[in-house]
Design brief:
The protein has about 130 residues and is mainly α. It has one domain. Helix content is about 85%, strand content about 0%. It contains five helices and no strands. Helix 1 packs antiparallel against helix 2, helix 2 packs parallel to helix 5 and helix 4 runs antiparallel to helix 5. It starts with a helix and ends with a helix. The mean pLDDT is about 95. Belongs to the fluoride channel Fluc/FEX (TC 1.A.43) family. InterPro entries: FluC. Fluoride-specific ion channel. Important for reducing fluoride concentration in the cell, thus reducing its toxicity. It is a multi-pass membrane protein.
Amino acid sequence: MLASPLSLLAVAVGGAAGSVARYLMLMMVMQWAGTRFPVGTIVVNVIGCTAMGVLSELAALAWSPSPELRALLLVGVLGGFTTFSSFTLDIGVLVARDEFAAAAGYFLASTLFSVVGFFAGLWAVRSLVSVSL
């Protein structure tokens, strides 16, 4: 099944918005934490994965977004915002600097906290939905 032109536009607009939001968040975190270790990428991935958990669970339990809105938010905005391509580049930079322990720590922290964020988002929505029922 091919995507509709409206869904493609939604992904493009959402992706642009998510990418700009990622860039702004990275700049803000770098001002706070510095640039030696890619804390900003971890922050973005955890926030993005948590938001993905919240939105996907809301869509499953209590909300019926249109295919275009789902494409805009889940594929576009969150796809543009989360940074697993940046994640791999950051690992490559750490390895190139022979900082293998930092690369391993970064890999583990990003993976663990992003997955935990996703399930935290699911849990938050389930808790709120069960309270309101």
